[in-house]
Amino acid sequence: MADHESIYETILKKREEHPALPYVFQDTETAGREDTLYILLSEGISYSQKEDMARNCCDAIREAITTDEVEKIAKLLLEQPIRTFFIELRERLRVLIEIGSFTQLELHDLGMKLARNSREADMVKLGIILIGFYPHDITLKIFKVLGYHSEFTIYVTESIYHAHFRHNEILFDLVQHTTGYGRLAALFQLKPITEEQQKWVIKSGVKSNLLSNIYVNIALQKTDIRHHLFETEIDEENYSDFMYIMAYQEQLEQKSLSAQALSFMEKLVEHRTFANTFIDEAALVTIWLKVIDSWKYDYQYLDAQVNESEPINSYWNHRFDRYEKLIRSVEVFLNKPKWQHTVMKEMINPNETDYLIVNTLQFLEMKPDFHVFSTMLARNPLGLNLLDFFLVHYPEKYFQEASDYLFALLSEQLFELPLLFVENSEPQSSDLVKVNMWLEALLKNMLEQDFFDIEWCIKILGYYQPKLRRMALLVLRKYADEWEDDDTVLTALETLREEEENRKNSRIVYKLLHMEIGPEKEVKYLPVSNVIENETTSDAVILDTKIVGTRFRDLTIAEEVVIKGKVLQLVREPSNEFDPKAIAVTLEDGYMLGYIPRTDNRILATLIDNDEVLFARFESEDLDEEEAKISVLLRKKRGPVFPDKPFGGNVVPFPTK
User: Fold this and answer.
1) Can you say how many angstroms the Cα of residue 365 is from the centroid of all Cα atoms in its chain?
2) Above pLDDT 90, what percent of the chain?
3) Which of 29, 83, 188, 373 is the most exposed place for a label (fewest CB within 10 A)?
4) How far apart are CA 504 and CA 516, in angstroms?
5) Is 633 left (phi over 0), alpha (psi -120 to 50) or beta?
6) Cβ(470)–Cβ(458) under 8 Å?
7) Are the beta carbons of 389 and 362 closer than 8 angstroms?
8) Which pLDDT score is estimated for 639?
């Protein structure tokens, strides 16, 4: 943008060069992202702070109206972006107009100046808010010029929604002619009352290469869209549009399907002969997954609510029959070579998200060669769904190729960052966090399976992130026999020993270099008769306590796996020479972490000796804490709610695939 041009003038000039809508000269992946997500999804700063800033801004607006100087406004918006308080500002201005502190015309004149002449985006956004108090044809023209650009759409939609009589008609125009985060902002405010609006939203409005899942879920919050979906007769023309919505609908938490949602899924599956594209295939897989989740949820609900002797009523019998019919219909229909070919075509030229492609591959139990993913990796080099597929679900096939891919992808500069020693969290949206997740998955596979890549371990010993350095050290400890005389590894360890300030890491480095500090710690295993792997809804917490004696144990063996929420085993040790009531706290393999305190173990020991099943949940953030806290849980003894019956049992058996 030329220095003398305002943002408004620049958009007008670009629009003459590229008259098509949506604007092709904006960056659809970033324009409006920060403001739209902040306003729609974030509470941000406190209400009192927002009110203070709104008051300060109103004072600056009064000064600008009086003096025709806007420097004070510019300085204020430079210190605090308008997205953080513009709603409070708009409401305060409304009240000030009502009591006569401002006139609508005064605000309009200042707003026109800011919207059309400013070179700073926040000044333009304030101008949009101000002219919204005095709507007329010229205002609407400026709203459209600016509102078609995603950077300003949310401010235009908010101003139109609260000030313009024909706001829904104008919002529909914005939805049709914007893209990216601009369309998201307009769609959020739109009320699609007419059949034309409903059809357009379903057929075109929710489709995007960037935000489909968010568009779909915003659309499904609108009663008119849901009504249209549930009530419209399905035919060959609208089938894929409906399946697109099904494929991208997110269920934020596992819960039982509503009656309407279940009926809608049945309708889509009944018309599966219309299915022909990848999105149809992916939607059928999504239906299968949602039904399985709902079936599981309903089982858990009944397990908690129904007594063993109480009969299951006909509602549940019918519901479980519907579940079974749905999943079997999907399985049989997709069990054809055609659908394997369809997903392979999508992988080579991907239009839909990695999430849908990976879900479909897993459903079809397909593990294509690594090179087939090349286009997907080029589109999304650090995709987390691909990470899960390669290194969580199928590392036995993909570990080495995924390792080589990452080795070639990552810049050497990443491994030259200054070392950190405190394990602070990082922003989840940063690419660096994605890199860390890939590296952690590689190292976790080396720790838990028989994979070892010595080059990666050496590189990560010099990586900035302390947790990943520790995991690399633990891998080296696991495979010590394979590098014992390797000078490259020993040199890397010596270098880290001189620089490392993280206490846990230093302890492992000294052990690997056979430089013990302090007395030798005990390594002890106890036999665990009944391993408890996970909690259930019926488990009851009976005591909050701690683990004692950890300072005598070699915690480097366990510290990476013992995290908050981890299930630990409780093992009686009646032969303990110091306390016959001793109860050890161990991992699943019996590795001992310490003991229940003597002051708490008497009643617990009696329960265990009387065949009650007790276990513990780790409650601290870190095993290295001085007093590692745990909760002791009792597993209730009860028979199965749904006894197996050879003929016509109450409940359809839960499916497996």
Assistant:
1) 25
2) 72
3) 29
4) 14
5) beta
6) no
7) yes
8) 47
